[in-house]
Amino acid sequence: MALATGTSVETFGGSVQVITGATQVVDDAFSAQGDCVAWTNSQNASFASFLLTAIFASAPTVNTPVNLYARLINISGTDDESIPSTTYQAHFLGSLIVSAATTQWVMLADAPLPNGQDAQQFEFFIENKSGQTLTAATWNLAINPKGFTVAA
Predict the structure, then answer these.
(1) Nearest Cα residue to 141 out of 45, 83, 68
(2) Model pTM greater than 0.70?
(3) pLDDT tens digits for range 31-59
(4) DSSP code of residue 150
(5) Nearest to 19 by CA among 141, 144, 143, 145
(6) Which residue in 6, 16, 1 sits closest to 148, CA to CA?
(7) Domains along the sequence of the chain with CATH
(8) pLDDT tens-digit profile of 5-25?
(9) Do residues 73 and 121 lie in contact, with contact meaning Cβ atoms separated by under 8 Å?
(10) Do 113 and 41 meet the contact criterion of CB atoms below 8 Å apart?
(11) Which of 25, 85, 104, 108 is deepest in the core (most CB within 10 A)?
């Protein structure tokens, strides 16, 4: 069945890798800043989908989260927000819920992007709460910014 003319539909800006996963992330720990690839929201999208591709050292506990956080870059001139940690979690975007498989592709759709200005720059971090280690060089995170348009 075709959508009626004038119906709101999602549009996507294209997937970009924002965390390379070069270092391991043990359980109850955050990813390292060195794994981040700064991303500029040049389209000023309000929402995005995130895809975590992961290989765990051992099967994680089913239905446990890998939490996603954003850090705003250049929010006052060249000043950045603090890096997310166990004591600072300002921009929680959502949880990617994992299964008990060692190799996974997990999608978080409709995560809000906390834009503070036009073309906001971000770094993204994960917090591993899966019960297992994310093995170095075997995981990454990609963003696909999205907006809305009208069906013709």
Answers:
(1) 68
(2) yes
(3) 999 999 999 999 999 999 999 999 998 99
(4) E
(5) 141
(6) 6
(7) 17-146 (2.60.120)
(8) 889 999 999 999 999 988 999
(9) yes
(10) yes
(11) 25
